[in-house]
Amino acid sequence: KQEVTQIPAALSVPEGENLVLNCSFTDSAIYNLQWFRQDPGKGLTSLLLIQSSQREQTSGRLNASLDKSSGRSTLYIAASQPGDSATYLCAVLNQAGTALIFGKGTTLSVSS
Amino acid sequence: EAQVTQNPRYLITVTGKKLTVTCSQNMNHEYMSWYRQDPGLGLRQIYYSMNVEVTDKGDVPEGYKVSRKEKRNFPLILESPSPNQTSLYFCASSLMALPNEKLFFGSGTQLSVL
Predict the structure, then answer these.
(1) pLDDT digits (tens, 9 = 90+) for A6-51
(2) A-chain residues within 8 Å CB-CB of B108?
(3) Nearest by Cα to A58 from A33, A83, A79, A77
(4) Which of A44, A86, B20, B22 has its CA 20 to 30 A from that of B32?
């Protein structure tokens, strides 16, 4: 059964720092991997989607990489800002292709 | 504006009183799904629908029902709610089947069953 783990569970950094969030999954036979952002009291927003054939995706200050063979993905946030404070979740598609399996998230706090 | 709309945002009810949480999307999406989010357990899928009149169970379907009579709507029904169904619920949709699509989420419904 696919399991997704995110480390660390929480992270606090000063504004301007570059940071890396980690995600690992137990079954390397995935279709794709998505990174989401969740703000308190709000839903999830999809940030980046990496297909299994891809190595990375970039959007603005965000870069996500995927290493299927090792079961790992990283989300790199450059020049962090207080507005980046949120919970970041990674998710992989289950083998049936019908549901995302989510990690428990990393809660990021960026102080000004 | 393209969005997934859930109602209500907050709901407090008592054990056994039937309730419905509505979900509607205006993006002509084929796929819709319900998740619940619990502390320490993360997000888990309840039900999903690949198209109109096609629904199937996710990982935690017990105590829930869904219907997909129209493409845009996917209500979640709790026939006899129990306290263990107290949770934050999310509806989500995507244009086509998941392997190639991003998932769009509603803002969530916080349900408390007393």
Answers:
(1) 999 999 999 999 999 999 999 988 888 999 999 987 889 999 999 8
(2) 41-43
(3) A77
(4) A86
